[in-house]
């Protein structure tokens, strides 16, 4: 059964998109943040592969074709960024400083905690880009000897966490203006945090998406130097 | 054929990014070079937003689906993750909260200073 299905050229693509669709449906029905479509989709794909006794690496080979879309998709983030150029320009010093400080704290705290915990090198490198968007984070991990899959999970957990605790933190820190809220969500928890920020206020969402791009670029610039400490 | 032309522009900037990644000896991914180049093209008016917007919005919208297959890989690496599960979770939680607090407060502080200047 598994061999037969794997011999169909489009089976893996269908399985992947179908599983994601079920994840989307679960998310819509329950409204639960933990019902993340990527998480549910991956769990369903994993279950199907195990049930049909299909080799995981065979599935990865067949879906490698989807992965080349990641680069053009990331390039496209220039468009929303361009649309928010006015907001960015007006608040440039505050946004850049906030994002730079947040990125420094992110990388510094992960590096310090990994060294204290004496985690293995590949694990530490994979955790390091956890606050930036998945596409950038996975690429950075891969180029510096980390495990992109682990980075994607760390990034996912980070996003969900920021989504959950963001409103509480904003309250106790008395962050009320859209600019500082947006910087906090975007820098700490990338696109998943941005989805929460967008619900709070359109401007908060705009600043958050600017912040996640700036945080990604800053992280990419210093990442290889930091990996020398691991 | 609107979508084909738009896709062509996106692939062109992605390709330029890949070229820069090869030429410039910095380990910055091609996607980030491409993003910066496209942003420059949009800001300078070299490329109008309409020439690219529909396909760009589409690619950004389907992006989460592209992460399903990589996330499945976690099963392959479970042996490495399981023994460090507590460490991984605690490191993520502590650093995420710290980043949220620091970036938010610093931005608020700078905004406050600017506001004060405007009023004065």
How would you describe the overall organization of this protein?
Chain A has 230 residues and is mostly helical. Chain A has helices at residues 2-6, 11-30, 37-51, 56-67, 70-75, 78-83, 85-90, 92-117, 121-127, 134-143, 148-173, 178-200, 202-226. The longest helix of chain A has 26 residues, at 92-117. Chain B has 2 domains: 1-66, no CATH class; 67-120. Chain B is an all-alpha fold and 120 residues long. Chain B is extended, with a radius of gyration of 21 Å. The model of chain B has no long low-confidence stretch (mean pLDDT 87). The interface between A and B is large, with 103 and 72 residues.
Question: In terms of topology, how is this protein built?
Answer:
The complex is a heterodimer of chains A (230) and B (120).
Chain A: H1 2-6, H2 11-30, H3 37-51, H4 56-67, H5 70-75, H6 78-83, H7 85-90, H8 92-117, H9 121-127, H10 134-143, H11 148-173, H12 178-200, H13 202-226
Helix pairs in contact in A: 2-3, 8-12, 8-13, 9-10, 9-11, 10-11, 11-12, 12-13
Chain B: H1 2-23, H2 30-43, H3 53-66, H4 68-76, H5 78-81, H6 85-119
Notable traits:
heterodimer, A: 230 residues, mainly alpha, 2 domains, 13 helices, globular, B: 120 residues
Short characterization:
The complex is a heterodimer of chains A (230) and B (120). Chain A is an all-alpha fold and 230 residues long.
Q: Beta-strand percentage of chain A? A: under 5%
Tell me the count of domains of chain A.
Answer: 2
Secondary structure class of chain A reads mainly alpha
Tell me the domain tally of chain B: 2
Q: Tell the overall outline of chain A.
A: globular
The tally of helices of chain A reads 13
């Amino acid at each position: 059964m598994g061999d037969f299905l794997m011999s169909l050229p489009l089976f893996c693509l269908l399985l992947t998109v179908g599983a994601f669709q079920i994840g989307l449906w679960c998310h819509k029905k329950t409204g639960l943040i933990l019902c993340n479509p990527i998480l549910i989709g991956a769990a369903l794909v994993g279950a199907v592969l195990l049930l049909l006794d299909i080799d995981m690496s065979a599935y990865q080979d067949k879906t490698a074709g989807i992965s080349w879309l990641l680069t053009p998709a990331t390039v496209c983030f220039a468009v929303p960024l361009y649309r928010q150029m006015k907001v960015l320009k007006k608040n440039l010093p505050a946004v850049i400083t906030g994002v730079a400080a947040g990125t420094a704290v992110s990388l510094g705290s992960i590096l310090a905690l990994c060294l204290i915990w004496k985690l293995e090198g590949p694990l530490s490198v994979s955790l390091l880009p956890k606050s930036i968007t998945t596409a950038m984070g996975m690429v950075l991990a891969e180029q510096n000897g980390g495990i992109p899959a682990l980075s994607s999970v760390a990034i996912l957990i980070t996003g969900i966490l920021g989504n959950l605790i963001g409103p509480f933190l904003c309250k106790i820190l008395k962050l009320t203006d859209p600019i500082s809220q947006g910087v906090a969500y975007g820098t700490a928890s990338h696109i998943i945090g941005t989805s929460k920020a967008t619900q709070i206020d359109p401007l908060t969402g705009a600043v958050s998406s600017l912040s996640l791009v700036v945080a990604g670029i800053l992280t990419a610039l210093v990442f290889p130097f930091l990996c020398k400490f691991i | 054929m609107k979508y084909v032309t738009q896709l062509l522009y996106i692939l062109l900037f992605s390709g330029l990014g890949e070229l820069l990644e090869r030429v410039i000896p910095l380990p910055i991914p091609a996607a980030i070079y491409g993003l910066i180049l496209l942003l420059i093209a949009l800001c300078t008016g070299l490329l109008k937003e309409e020439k690219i917007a529909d396909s760009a919005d589409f690619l950004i919208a389907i992006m989460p689906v592209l992460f399903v297959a990589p996330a499945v890989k976690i099963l392959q690496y479970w042996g490495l993750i399981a023994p460090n599960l507590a460490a991984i979770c605690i490191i993520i939680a502590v650093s995420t909260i710290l980043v949220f607090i620091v970036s938010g407060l610093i931005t608020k502080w700078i905004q406050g200073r600017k506001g004060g200047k405007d009023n004065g």
